[in-house]
Amino acid sequence: MVIPQGRFLVGPLVFTGPCRNREPIVVQIKGTLLSASPDQLDDFPMDVDNWVQFYDINGLIVIGGGTLDGQGASFWSHSLGGQGPGLPVGFISESSSATTLDYTTFASPRPGNSPNTDGIHISRSNLVKIARTQIATGDDCIGMIQGSTNISIKKVTCGPGHGISIGSLGKYENEADVRRVIVKNVTISNTDNGVRIKTMRGPKAIATQASSIIFQDIIMHNVKNPIIIDQEYNAHGKKQVNPSIVKISDVHFINIRGDVNITSCGSGGMQQKCPVKTSNSTTLTWTTWEDR
After folding, report:
1. For 210-255, what is each residue's pLDDT tens digit?
2. DSSP of 248-273, one letter per residue?
3. Active site residue 139
4. One of 118, 121, 140, 162 is an active-site residue; which one?
């Protein structure tokens, strides 16, 4: 499928399987896809929580150098599915395998001020590759939750937004593990977070694992919280006696460089006010920072 050069107004797009292909399905985006506004979607016969979704597809390549523009500002004053104001997630891979996203731009006007707007969301998917992609959003540039395995993220530019995240984990019933994730040769700029792993705690927390994770050769500019492993993601400021039971292991932060917006951490320096939380089997190698 080829989307030619030009600008095209579209509603929610859902490509659903099961598709078990001997050869991959190629979607080439050369032009710009513009999300329809909430008023235009009032009578649309589909769920609008997600804009572009690929479900249960084995073998998918999205390429072309085009742009997915969610036109997020038009959504912020509307309620979507009872979840409050926000923009549907831009791109979702769910229950899919062998997915490649290459040379694509995700953007929205004034994305840094937008509420809870993920750029790319990955769930229960295997062999996903994201490369040469630019993402500007109001929440995670890329979020990987349960069942994300063999994920490769390389040569991606993220910002503004909340960085690149694994989690939240420990949230869903019968949750699948996250394994073998590599984030490499990435630039993250003007974001609240850099790279992050976040898990839930509490009586409903589910036992799962996140392992074999590499964050390598990453440059950050003006990032408030460069590296976070947070196993109390849902409990900050709350009395919560149940610890997170998500096991995090074999995590490596290698050659991460950049400058941090130290004013977001208060006085006293990064080490005192912005600690890097680590757990067993976690390594930090050649990680350097320059305070702004």
Report:
1. 999 999 999 999 999 999 998 888 776 666 667 788 999 999 999 9
2. EEEEEEEEEEEEE-GGGG-TT-HHHH
3. yes
4. 162
